[in-house]
Amino acid sequence: MNKREFVIAGIMFLIACAVFLFICKPWDKGEKEVPAASVSEAKAPREAYENMQVFSLDALSDMAGFEVNELEGIPFEVTEKRYNCIYDKDAGYKIAEITYYGVDASLCFAKGSGTDSIPWYILYDNEVEIEKASDIEVKLKKDESGYSTAQWMKDGFIYSVEIDPGVEKEDILELVGGIK
Length: 180
Known about the structure:
eight-stranded antiparallel beta sheet; about 25% helix; alpha+beta; 8 strands
């Protein structure tokens, strides 16, 4: 597990604990039934969004409200996949994420509606290159290991690919061009 995955896992654990405490209120001695719907609607304090993990691509598409496809051409052997749907009721966006894990690599593919950026992958104009992939204008960000982030708009959706470690420009553009 790399440092980013460890930090994300820790944050997810803290969010889950906060949601549990918010819903169950173990300090409240009164007997109260918690409706099932309130579990999925509860927000953790300090968090503006809900992050729901699902266990299939179909469930991810259903939860997001739009079709999500698996990413093809991943440049490493995938040992694990995670599906998440992030929903911000206040801002009105939904983002479907598929994170692919390998032995020494990870790739996060995100597709969102209701927004023109993936909030945790904000790319500033002074740190990106603009390239074309299958007639799509793609913003690319490079770090010390190579090209690590790509972001673009297509058919009213925002897309993002973040790969660790980074890859060659041609490889990340090939991933982008193959997304259906």
